Amino acid sequence: MQNKFFWGNSVSSMQTEGGWNEGGKSLSVYDVQKPAKDLSDWHFANDNFHNFAEDFDLMKDAGMNMYRFQISWSRVVKDGTGAWNEAGIEYYDHFIDELIKRGIEPMICLYHFDMPLYLAEKYNGFLSKETVKAFVRFGKEMVKRFSAKCKWWITFNEQNLYSQPDIAFRIAGYVKGDKTTDELYQIMHNVMTAHAQISNFIHETSDAKIGGMLAYSEVYPASCRPKDVECARQWDEFINFSLLDCFAGQGYSPAMLKLVKTKHIDMKMLPEELKDIADLKNDFLSFSYYASTTVDSTNITEETVPNYFLIKGKKVNPYIDSTEWSWQIDPAGFRNVLNKMYQRYRIPVFPIENGIGVREKWDGENIIEDDYRIKYHKEHIDAMLKAINKDGVEVLGYLGWGLIDILSSGGDMEKRYGLVYVNRGNRDLRDMKRVPKKSYFWFKKVIASGGNDM
Ligand code: BG6
Question: What is the extent of the structural domain holding 244?
Fold first, then answer.
């Protein structure tokens, strides 16, 4: 294990903060979403905007030494592109100081699906190079303001989701159009360009470290039929390796560039952008990991572009269990992913999201006995320790997702990941009291023992 191994918590702003219309914040696409039946809106989240000191105390008490959070673009820049909102910047400045005071290293994320509403409506989000310009301006300013005290950065949460057509358009702030393959590739490339420009700027102006980040779910072939195996390999190539190759300084994968050429996909790549991507070299490779799945080639034709493979061929793995939300729990896949990233690139790897979403009720008195969560984390930490100790993988730390309950990505407060319960429901905000669950005390022991006592 590293001399300083990071144990901590990881969140996004819209799932955590609340304060949606306070402190000069402008609107993001989330703020105007009407909640679907039995889901929450995005206005209050777990009220971290007003309450972060209590949450930092809990993290410190658990022994955590890193917190990955997001600077909300809409909170610090008017409409994502206008004047700096100094009140918003001041808020994060204080927030960061409070973390550092408690011995918790900040990791800043700059974008987690919450496009400023103005940029979504005016430019269709990251489909436009105008949005790239606005994002890079915002990112560079945050680097100027905070890189002296924040040494760990990521730009995009789960950057490979911008290569997946069922998700990319929504998270890129794309609000109108036909969602074509050309547009998918343009968004993917614009996002990579923005990532490269901000990464290069960090390296030119500071000693801070910046990583690329993927949502790296292991995708197995559904059978040993050669066609299934080929589809699983191509999926990895187009969704994961093509981006990791860029993060590692090698540019886009040859397989992807070849397909773009033969299929005449119009990626709108400019020579100066390719130069920025060629100059990119990230300091660490980070990823979220929750589950794995399989791909079945039966309905995948020769013409199918690999980015669409899971839409046509996703299949349940009969060998592993699922959560209530059908996420298949697979710690062995976690060890695979750690190995795939490190053995190929030899750049330190960092799992910065892991955890299990479960519906839980608190009776107002007794501790929540979340043994299922302890089991989940234990098996995944164990898989990580095997990657470190048996496979020689260099791992920087382990951050759990939403360890103080937050809204799920769909806005469901009842899908909880926390070691700490937050007393609110989807429509009933109650008192938002923080109540440690059994897993909190277990995780504290794990951290104190450096992973030895599980
Ligand atoms: C990750 C996202 O993909 O998964 C988070 O970065 C999300 O935003 C997390 O919350 C867990 O997913 P969900 O849908 O269960 O909240």
Answer: 6-448
